[in-house]
Amino acid sequence: MIATNPDKNLLVDRFGRQVTYVRLSVTDRCDLRCVYCMCEDMTFLPREQLLTLEEMARLGKAFVDLGVHKIRITGGEPLVRRNILKLFRDLGQLEGLRDLTLTTNGTQLARYAQELKDAGVTRINISLDTLKPDRFHALTRLGDISKVMAGIDAALEAGFERVKLNAVILKHHNHDEIMDLVEFAHGRGMDITFIEEMPLGVIGDHDRAEAYYSSDDILRDLQQQMELHEVEDNTGGPARYVKPAGSPYRIGFISPHSHNFCDTCNRVRVTAEGRLLLCLGQEHSVDLRRVLRANPTEDEKVREALLASMAIKPQGHEFALGGQPVIFRHMSVTGG
Ligand code: SAM
Ligand code: SF4
């Protein structure tokens, strides 16, 4: 169905889908080098190419004025960006923004969790693919799991509405820990979501097709050990959820290889350089940095650019495994 946008106060695309959720990448840098996300010797963007924190706050306000009610801050690792709390504080004050969330690797959370809560962050997703220190070090090429564990403790103590774990499962790397990860998350009162690896960016010698472990594989493994019930969910996202019998906590599955979520897609992404991506799996984009810098005070121009972008939001994505990546940008650039 091709629809026109009758309401110039909302972001509605040609297919009648309203954008209410923005994922904003605040840096492409990171203190880890997860094997599925980055190569070992990454070249990062020069600082002047990144949006400033003020530009990001301006953009956030423009989105919220157009009906966006959820913003997720991601990266790279958001908490390595200098003065990042200022952005959280600015966004946290926007009227109309119901949900200000963060995706983080958790290494800096012990320091920042309480200030993030005070700034208005409602929910946090922490990425953790293994419970084993050696494995964590190997999967992240640099990491010390004790920092993430301290970060999880701090996040749970700070009193967010929700703290959730995200885990990417890779065959022969961590697929034997699926059950342990569920028990760890649920035992500490957290939901957990398993993410299928996506072919984003060239990442060195890690073989994606070889490591691919599907959501169906994960579900099958879990069903051998526990009774699971489907949970209704209407977030418009790519996740589906189950719950173990008698448990209040969820297990989610993000399966980007299946197309089934594109019809209800309600989200766009902004890269750290200010490129508005209309679809994770396609290259359609708008250079918002140019718009912001050409119009340092005229917010109407930013609003017009956002409304106009709805004409190029594609209907769906096309991912494939093996061979060359379909999309050459890394997840750390796109914002996971
Ligand atoms: N650094 C933060 C973190 O790790 O949570 C935020 C950015 S990271 C790019 C966001 C999420 O994307 C993480 O949960 C990470 O595991 C996931 N991710 C990164 N590369 C991926 C890929 N190629 N396929 C699937 N998920 C990926
Ligand atoms: Fe860094 Fe997150 Fe990518 Fe890991 S997944 S390298 S923590 S940005």
* Structural class designation: alpha/beta
Helix/strand order? EHEHEHEHHEHEHHEEEEEEHHH
* Shape annotation: globular
Distance between the termini: 29 Å
Q: What's the CATH H-level homologous superfamily?
A: Aldolase class I
What do you see in this structure?
With 336 residues, the chain is α/β, with parallel strands linked by helices. The chain has a single domain (21-334), classed as TIM Barrel. 30% of the residues lie in helices and 17% in strands. Iron/sulfur cluster is lined by residues 30, 32-34, 37-38, 75-77, 105, 127, 331-332. Iron/sulfur cluster binds at residues 30, 32-34, 37-38, 75-77, 105, 127, 331-332.
Task: Draw up the topology in text.
Blueprint: E1 21-25, H1 53-65, E2 70-74, H2 84-92, E3 99-104, H3 109-119, E4 123-127, H4 133-140, H5 145-158, E5 162-168, H6 178-187, E6 191-195, H7 208-211, H8 215-223, E7 228-231, E8 239-244, E9 251-254, E10 267-270, E11 275-277, E12 285-287, H9 288-294, H10 299-309, H11 331-334
Parallel strand pairs: 1-2, 1-10, 2-3, 3-4, 4-5, 5-6, 6-9
Antiparallel strand pairs: 7-8, 8-9, 10-11, 11-12
The structure holds S-adenosylmethionine and iron/sulfur cluster.
Iron/sulfur cluster (SF4) is lined by residues 30, 32-34, 37-38, 75-77, 105, 127, 331-332.
